[in-house]
Write a structure and sequence with these properties.
The protein is mainly α. It has one domain. The chain contains nine helices and no strands. Helix 2 runs antiparallel to helix 6, helix 6 runs antiparallel to helix 9 and helix 8 packs antiparallel against helix 9. The mean pLDDT is 86.
Length: 271
């Protein structure tokens, strides 16, 4: 083949054929559709996450106000502020919240929940026990750093506001036992089942870890009702979500939560 003919052949071979043009056009269309489908997927995942968060928030608010309304109607006025009444109120609220948040969707809407989704597989292990204090230390550091940042951004907020836990004048041993059982054992266990258990498990099944952690932790902070506590528990929630990712269960988070509430109980009622 002469040099001139070989150059012509090379030029012809460099030109895209009709089939190659169609393939390129089809590839571009597929890429556009893929981008659109990803956008819709992200949109629907966001709606799903916000919907579940709204469900848990609505359940907790509704249950608290409904039980408080019933107690006001049933009990004498002078007993409403007693430690016994507050303990009974907390037990009923957590029991009702767990039932409505988890079992109603399961039985009514057939939105079944497994033990693995809640993260209650097995019992706490030595790994959970060892990771809990480490996670607590990390959460304290993270909460401190986040609080300093938020103070700079929102200087008008009362960052020294005392959290109201509902118990006063713990003079009798029985009062200490009730308050300790509710604040240090019952509250961490029930809140972990609801937030890092059911809610996080449902979200994590459909989305990556980071958005699931943020949705759960923002809601957890909002539910505490004040900025200084909300920022602290937001950081703690992120740490507990990470522990669940690492261990596959909520037990390390439950123990971390108990440590945090136990320390708070000591400073509020012991010293």
């Amino acid at each position: 083949m002469t040099e001139k003919k070989s150059v012509e052949v090379a030029k012809i071979s460099d030109k895209p054929t009709a089939l190659e043009k169609k393939v390129a056009e089809l590839s571009k269309k597929i890429q556009k559709k893929t981008k659109r489908s990803r956008g819709w997927k992200i949109f629907f995942l966001a709606l799903f996450g916000l919907g579940l968060a709204a469900w848990i928030g609505l359940v907790l608010f509704a249950v608290q106000y409904a039980i408080a309304f019933l107690l006001v109607k049933i009990l004498p006025e002078d007993s409403l502020t007693s430690n016994v009444t507050n303990a009974v109120y907390q037990v009923i609220v957590y029991a009702a919240a767990l039932f409505v948040a988890v079992f109603v969707p399961w039985k009514v809407l057939k939105y079944k929940t497994t033990r693995d989704e809640i993260g209650m597989r097995g019992l706490p292990t030595w790994t959970d026990i060892l990771l809990a204090p480490i996670g607590f230390a990390v959460s304290l550091f993270a909460a401190g750093a986040l609080t300093l940042t938020m103070k700079a951004l929102l200087p008008d907020v009362n960052w020294e506001q005392v959290q109201e836990v509902g118990y006063n004048n713990l003079y009798q041993f029985s009062d200490f036992v009730m308050a300790f059982a509710c604040l240090v054992i019952l509250a961490p266990l029930c809140e972990e089942i609801i937030f890092r258990g059911w809610l996080y498990g449902k979200l994590r099944f459909r989305m990556p870890a980071l958005p699931a952690m943020l949705i759960v932790s923002v809601l957890f902070g909002i539910m505490h009702g004040q900025w200084n506590v909300g920022v602290t528990v937001f950081a703690m929630s992120i740490c507990m979500c990470i522990l669940r990712e690492f261990t596959g269960t909520i037990w390390a988070g439950v123990l971390l939560h108990m440590i945090k509430n136990g320390v708070a109980f000591y400073f509020l009622f012991v010293i």
